[in-house]
Automatic annotation (TrEMBL):
It comes from Bifidobacterium favimelis. Residues 88-113 are annotated as: Disordered. The keyword Transmembrane helix applies. Residues 98-107 have a biased composition (Low complexity). This is DUF6541 family protein. The keyword Membrane applies. Signal peptide: none annotated. It comes from the Bacteria.
Length: 718
């Protein structure tokens, strides 16, 4: 199943990326999920609007149409310009860095060596320096993630027994049962507007293997994003922000699977499947934005194509989970601010009049956004105020887990907490390395490094506001993330890993400079001042002994982080507890082994068109995930309509009154599933279901497993 999901995510998107002219395997793999997610999100909305079913056929047909359009545009544009077809076939979006496969050199540069230098250019297969460290890092991350999941979870068919899991499983189930995969109506009656990009690929995996439960499809989809998409995305970001070097290529992928609880953090908390999918591709968005803000905006031939990729990345992240885009904008704020100053200076040199108009427009935009935000704030909290700011964002997950000093320490050392608010161990080798690299970047005092440091510290400020205080100002600062510290801490690796890689390059450069002062250059020696920069290592460059040593040290460090990391072990233990069954006589967590087994065979009794009545807080809402049957209450909480509220409150007292019978018949509710008490007692959201119990005189037992019992409703003539 994971292979089918992998092909769905990478094959259509990879073809579309290739048609834009990119040939580098690293770029293809990093960019391919973007058009796939965007295409699935858009065509899901379109097909639902026109009344067509969404699935493999519609998804691949949409990809084929897009490929045809891109190919035709790429073929026709050069002819319309009268330039003929270039060697790339006239790609609609040319490779971002000029020549395909080269991350730094422009097309036609001949490798950057002037004619007559006497240097012989070798051709043939690329040197391992271009791909082996990067591949090693990604493979180590994949192995670490797969082994961690296998260690924590006995079977991919098991469910994460958390509040949000019910909703996400049922969204996938609705796509499978109705063929409607639109983010505008994700789960009608529960929540309409919600991004379903992750759920669409889980549905494709389930369609390829219909004999497996939905829970297996969701787990396999998570695994594809965690084991492949995430480390490849981090490699892409590090190469764009720091440069392509063998050692940092290895660190970028390798560290992505073993720092700050990632990639398991959001599997334990929530469980926030779509948010993790968006986090997994967010580094690609930041890498594309970095390239545009640092160089492509100055190049007339690249400014629009590069910006188009940034916009596509925004669309893809939004269809995975649009709130993660807010995290991306937070991390990108220092980069965009520097670009604004540079663009303003360039515009001022070109035309003072245009500069003044642009400055006025920017000021007007800022004032307009500020006014709108102020009006919304005043309406919610100041005018006719019945709920002051202190009355908002007071749920359990919004409460601070630390003092301000403790939150700062946790962020600087990359120490996560699990869903039970237990602190995981600090992995000191990584924490010390981060602090050393942060100090090195600040001491270097170069623009690129300072941008990375500013992003890290800005994220830290918002995180500390979440975790260190419950003051009103902190609620205002963190409201866009529901004052949920885990949503912000999940971005820690995205800024910490590039910062580590940048700091290491600074330290290595300083060390090389000190070593060079003690050497006298011999005949034919190329000094560091004339050698090509490390990020321009091409496919045919040979490795110097120092490069081999740096790669071996990086490999040793990643192996230690992956296989001798108490923080990673504790995170896997937390995930294992999220999947663990309740005891035979326990109500918490939601499912016991007996209840799980009954749910798996429920389809033997319940017809496909029937619905099942039950208290969703006792685990019965997993009916759709395990047996593809529809629960009448498809989530634990929402703004229930009158029929749902009436049946929950009155069925156990009067199961055969006319209104109850009408509701049962109109919705084809023929079954009642008793799985004992709720997994959380005394929760106010459970109040509507407090009186929902089986009624022996109105139903007949059909199947039993331990305490779990399936009844057929016999009242109302059913």
């Amino acid at each position: 199943m994971a292979l089918a999901i992998l092909l769905a995510l990478y094959l259509p998107g990879g073809v579309l990326v290739r048609l834009t002219g990119r040939r580098s395997p690293a770029e293809l793999l990093a960019l391919a999920p973007l058009p796939s997610l965007a295409l699935a999100g858009v065509d899901g909305i379109i097909f639902a609007r026109v009344g067509l079913s969404w699935g493999w056929v519609s998804y691949l047909a949409s990809a084929a149409i897009m490929a045809l359009i891109i190919g035709l545009v790429g073929w026709s544009l050069p002819r319309l310009r009268g330039t003929g077809v270039g060697r790339r076939g006239g790609a609609a979006l040319p490779p971002e860095n000029g020549r395909a496969g080269s991350p730094s050199r422009p097309a036609g540069s001949g490798g950057g060596l002037p004619a007559g230098t006497g240097v012989k250019i070798r051709t043939g297969l690329p040197s391992p320096s271009g791909w082996l460290p990067a591949l090693t890092g990604v493979l180590l991350a994949a192995v670490t993630t797969v082994m961690g999941l296998i260690h924590a979870v006995p079977s991919p068919e098991q469910v994460t027994q958390n509040y949000d899991t019910v909703f996400h499983y049922n969204v996938v189930g609705r796509i499978l049962m109705t063929g409607q995969a639109t983010s505008l109506h994700a789960l009608p009656g529960i929540r309409d507007v919600y991004p379903v990009g992750f759920h669409e690929f889980a549905a494709l995996g389930d369609l390829a293997f219909p004999s497996l439960p939905i829970s297996a499809a969701v787990t396999c989809t998570w695994l594809v994003f965690a084991a492949l998409v995430w480390p490849i995305s981090m490699l892409f970001l590090v190469r764009r922000a720091v440069g392509a070097r063998p050692a940092t290529d290895l660190l970028a992928g390798g560290l992505s699977a073993c720092c700050a609880g990632f990639p398991f953090l959001l599997l334990d908390w929530g469980t926030l499947y779509p948010m993790f999918a968006a986090q997994a591709i967010l580094p690609v968005f930041l890498g594309l934005l970095w390239t545009w803000c640092r160089k492509d905006w100055r190049r007339p031939d690249r400014v629009l194509p590069s910006l188009a990729w940034v916009i596509l990345a925004c669309v893809a992240v939004s269809f995975a989970h649009f709130r993660v885009l807010l995290t991306g904008l937070l991390l990108a704020a220092p980069l965009v601010l520097v670009w604004l100053f540079q663009a303003g200076a360039a515009l001022r040199r070109r035309s003072r009049r245009l500069f003044h108009w642009a400055l006025a427009g920017l000021a007007a935009l800022i004032l307009a956004v500020g006014d709108i935000g102020g009006l919304i704030f005043a309406r919610m909290y100041l005018r006719h105020n019945t709920r002051p700011i202190s009355g908002h964002l007071n749920g359990g997950f919004t409460r601070p887990a630390d003092s301000m000093a403790g939150a700062m320490a946790r962020f600087l050392t990359g120490q996560p907490i699990d869903s039970a608010y237990n602190r995981l161990p600090v992995f000191w080798p990584l924490a010390v390395l981060l602090m050393v690299c942060l100090l090195a970047v600040l001491a270097e005092h170069r623009e690129e490094g300072l941008i990375l440091a500013a992003s890290f510290l800005l994220l830290g400020f918002v995180f500390v506001a979440c975790d260190g205080t419950h003051a009103d100002w902190a609620k205002v600062v963190t409201a866009l993330w529901y004052k949920d510290q885990r949503r912000l801490f999940a971005a820690w690796p995205i800024v910490a890993i590039p910062l580590i890689c940048r700091g290491l390059t600074v330290l290595v450069r300083w060390g090389s400079g000190l070593a060079a002062r003690g050497r006298v250059p011999g005949p034919g020696t190329v000094t560091s001042s004339t050698s090509a920069p490390a990020e321009k290592h091409g496919g045919n460059r040979t490795w110097r002994p120092g490069s081999w040593l740096a790669v071996l040290l990086a490999l040793a460090f990643v192996l230690v982080c992956s296989f001798a990391n108490p923080q990673l072990d504790a995170m896997e233990g937390a995930v294992g507890r999220a999947y663990a069954f309740a005891g035979p006589d326990a109500d918490s967590p939601m499912l016991s082994r007996d209840e799980y087994l009954l749910l798996k065979r429920l389809d033997r009794h319940v017809a496909p068109g029937d619905e099942v009545l039950a208290d969703p807080w006792n685990g019965s809402a997993f009916v759709m995930a395990m047996s593809r049957r529809v629960p009448y209450y498809a989530h634990l909480n929402t703004v229930w309509d009158q029929d749902h509220l009436y049946l929950a409150r009155t069925f156990s007292q009067s199961p055969d009154d006319p209104r109850s019978c009408s509701i049962l018949k109109d919705n084809n509710v023929r079954w009642y599933l008793d799985m004992q008490g709720p997994y959380m007692r005394d929760d106010p959201q459970h109040a509507p279901f407090a009186g929902l119990h089986p009624v022996p005189r109105a139903m007949q037992e059909v199947d039993r497993q331990g305490r779990a019992v399936l009844y057929r409703i016999t009242s109302c003539g059913l």
